[in-house]
Design brief:
Elements: E1 2-3, H1 7-18, E2 25-27, E3 40-43, H2 45-52, H3 57-75, H4 86-92, E4 98-102, E5 105-108, E6 121-124, H5 125-138, E7 143-145, E8 149-154, E9 159-163, E10 168-171, E11 174-176, H6 183-188, E12 194-195, E13 200-205, E14 213-217, E15 220-224, E16 231-235, H7 248-259, E17 269-275, E18 278-280, E19 285-286, E20 289-291, E21 297-298, H8 306-325, H9 335-359, H10 363-374, H11 379-385, H12 407-412, E22 418-421, E23 436-439, E24 444-447, E25 453-457, H13 460-471
Parallel strand pairs: 1-2, 1-11, 2-7, 11-20, 22-23
Antiparallel strand pairs: 3-6, 4-5, 8-9, 9-10, 12-18, 13-16, 13-17, 14-15, 15-16, 18-21, 19-20, 22-24, 24-25
This protein binds flavin-adenine dinucleotide.
């Protein structure tokens, strides 16, 4: 059973269904949150490859093209009717060399050292979730909307879940994908250590009588845009009230403090308040209960990492839990979930904290930003922000633990099974035919369903050991 039908819960549901174990998804909201439809999210290069491995990359790219076209239309209305692909559209916006940003510092390829890298693709979260919801429906996974989980009681071989109407559901395994304020996390007693907010960003669509554009001021940051684009302030003396919706009066007061003017705000739309509250559970599993996505980690949304991190959690967990819940692999396989994903989450929290530090507007940080912008290449940061550096446990072969990049291999992963390349090794893998697709190739490479290489080499004994370890005996 999966609690939470947000992007992570939906993606995990599809992964489990592909692995032959159909979960029940329960989601508190009766309808998708309409506000998500208006929120841009960056999908990173590594996530795009994960989506390619499930045949979802083209639909996601189409959303990104539509988003860039909207941006192009705002910048230059004459571009509207020119059908162009994404690279051409980015070129027309003068963004061809921009590979992303770090703490709002553009990461620009000034000397051609990053031509192989691309920036995250911006999509509307609501539309992206719709792609996932369609996939879940195609796979026949039941999603019960308007169902809220209020209590979770784990036992030795079952977990009892209480719903808001008082009814109970028993499940063998439970995954909390119920967001940053996770009920599952709280009920099951996962810790959630981390750092308190040091900044607050207030974002809303409003007609503001201030110069449009972006300013870094000693009092904070100010981004003013004409509706329907949102405007934003960032202040580093956080308001302790983090609950309740941002009001026009609060937004006005913040705009006045940052801009030093007497600006007035009468009406706001799509109000959001975000902070750099950064926390992560020390384990992602307690017995039969697991966490994925924001339920396991929260951090500042600036930097655009959370959705990607959560989708990668789901990609890592889905096939493992499928094998374990289906009785084909031992429970110990699930221990690799925390072992592999916790360090990745911790690193995102570290990067996110570094970004918050770099957002500050004092003279020392301005100097640091200038230095960073002068570095001959920002390749490391681009790779970091796209999750391209992620490598799980290395092995004897240099490919072990890396992500398979070959587009043909990604296509062969679509059914969510493992993949063995290397004709001479097929006989060794014959006993795993229900879990592994085999294909030709000179080099022996065993790819996990999530696209990471479990083993590479020529020795059948090494392959057999890897098959047992990752796919069960
Ligand atoms: C302003 C902003 C900008 C962002 N930009 C980016 C970006 O560019 N790139 C990026 O990668 N990330 C970004 N993020 C982060 C991203 O939106 C989140 O990390 C992502 O939505 C997490 O997905 P999730 O499925 O884990 O949680 P959620 O999206 O929060 O979904 C959790 C679901 O669980 C349901 N639920 C909660 N409690 C219960 C319960 N008790 N019973 C039943 N259902 C329950 C909720 O209704 C919800 O639908 C941004 C976030 C914000 C706020």
């Amino acid at each position: 059973m999966i609690v939470g039908g947000g992007p992570v819960g939906l993606f995990l549901a599809a992964e489990l269904a592909l692995a032959g174990v159909t979960p029940l998804v329960v989601e508190r909201l009766t309808e998708p949150d309409p506000r998500k439809g208006e929120d841009d999210r960056g999908i990173t290069a590594r996530t795009m490859r994960t989506l390619a491995a499930r045949g979802l990359a083209d639909a996601t790219t189409a959303l990104a093209e539509a988003a860039v076209r909207r941006l192009a239309r705002l910048a230059d209305p004459s571009l509207v009717d020119t059908p162009k692909d994404l690279p051409a559209l980015l070129e027309s916006l003068g963004m061809a060399d921009v590979k992303g940003d770090f703490a709002m510092l553009p990461l620009v390829d000034r000397n051609g050292t990053m031509t192989d890298l691309s920036p995250p693709l911006m999509v509307l979260q609501g539309e992206f979730e719709e792609i996932l919801a369609c996939r879940v429906a195609e796979l026949g996974v039941p999603v019960r909307r308007g169902v809220e989980v209020t209590a979770v009681a784990p036992g030795d071989d079952r977990v009892t879940v209480t719903l808001a109407d008082g009814s109970e559901i028993e499940t063998a395994w439970l995954v909390g994908c119920d967001g940053g304020r996770s009920t599952v996390r709280r009920c099951v007693g996962f810790d959630f250590p981390g750092t308190d907010p040091s900044m607050v960003a207030r974002i809303a669509v409003a007609d503001i009588d201030l110069a449009h554009g972006f300013q870094r001021l000693p009092t904070g940051m100010l981004a003013v845009a004409p509706p329907p684009a949102p405007s934003m302030t960032i202040e580093f003396d956080p308001d302790p009230t983090r609950d309740g919706e941002l009001t026009a009066a609060e937004f006005e007061a913040s705009l006045r403090r940052v801009s030093g003017t007497g600006v007035t705000v009468r009406e706001i739309a799509a109000p959001t308040r975000i902070t750099d509250n950064a926390r992560q559970t020390s384990t992602y599993r307690r017995g039969r209960v697991l966490l994925a996505g924001d339920a396991a980690h929260v951090h500042s949304p600036i930097g655009g990492q959370g959705l990607n991190l959560g989708l990668q959690d789901a990609a890592n967990l889905g096939w493992k839990l499928g094998l374990v819940a289906g009785g084909r692999a031992p429970e110990s396989l699930l221990d690799t979930y925390t072992r592999e994903r916790h360090p990745v989450g911790a690193e995102v929290l570290r990067n996110s904290r570094a970004e918050t530090a770099l957002l500050r507007t004092d003279p020392q940080i301005e100097a640091l930003r200038a230095l960073l912008a002068e570095l001959p290449t920002q390749r490391h940061l681009v790779e970091l922000m796209n999750g391209l550096h992620i490598r799980y446990e290395p092995g004897e072969h240099p490919l072990t633990g890396t992500f398979v990049d070959d587009p043909h291999a990604l296509e062969l992963l679509r059914a969510g099974r493992g993949l063995l390349l290397g004709g001479h090794l097929h006989e060794t893998a014959a006993a795993w035919a229900d879990r592994i697709t085999t294909a030709g190739g000179e080099d022996g490479v065993l790819v996990r369903p999530d696209g990471y290489i479990a083993w590479a080499g020529t020795d059948p004994d090494g392959l057999r050991a890897a098959l047992i370890r990752w796919f069960g005996p």
